[in-house]
Design a protein that fits this description.
Largest sheet: 8 strands, antiparallel
Distance between the termini: 22 Å
Number of domains: 1
Strand order of the largest sheet: 1-6-10-9-3-4-2-5
CATH superfamily: Regulatory factor, effector binding domain
Shape: globular
Strand content: 35-45%
């Protein structure tokens, strides 16, 4: 069942790209670039990796980031970007199962918020913070059907 939680601001490091709807899996492979950059800078992530959807346009494609929260804001280099996930109220729900089920989980979260009369912190297709946080480490949970993923969508203040 979805809930509303207060989350503090979170600095992060990520790679950003424009992605077609059918290209998300290929873009996810770029997570290794972020991991390598963090390792080279001797920066340890302080939480699970995430996908951040900045623009969600089912026809034109997505603008998204794949990254990790870190303790301190740094400057990016090349295709590595940095930013801060804003503090605020987030509608959140945990999805247990294969990432293919996230589309349905997202639809359900959006529908729940509409029924509750909640407003997203978004301007049309442009979102302030719409996240999928991957709680399961594939090295520890190799079966994607057993993964836990949190959806965290920022609500308007």
């Amino acid at each position: 069942m979805p809930e509303i939680v207060q989350i503090g601001e979170r600095p992060y490091v990520a790679v950003r790209g424009k992605v077609a709807m059918d290209g998300i899996a290929a873009f996810a492979d770029r997570m290794g670039e972020v991991i390598a950059w963090l390792a080279a800078k001797e920066i340890a992530p302080n939480d699970a990796p995430f996908f951040k959807y900045d623009v969600v346009d089912m026809e034109a494609g997505l603008v998204m980031e794949i990254g990790f929260p870190v303790d301190d804001l740094r400057s990016g280099e090349g295709e590595i970007v940095t930013g801060v996930l804003p503090a605020g109220r987030y509608a959140t729900v945990r999805h247990h199962g294969h990432p293919d089920g996230l589309l349905g989980a997202t639809r359900d979260l959006l529908g729940w918020a509409e029924k509750e009369g909640l407003e997203w912190d978004a301007d049309g297709d442009h979102w302030t913070a719409r996240l999928e946080v991957y709680r399961s480490d594939p090295r520890e949970v190799p079966d994607m059907n057993n993964w836990d993923t949190d959806l965290q969508f920022k609500l308007k203040d």
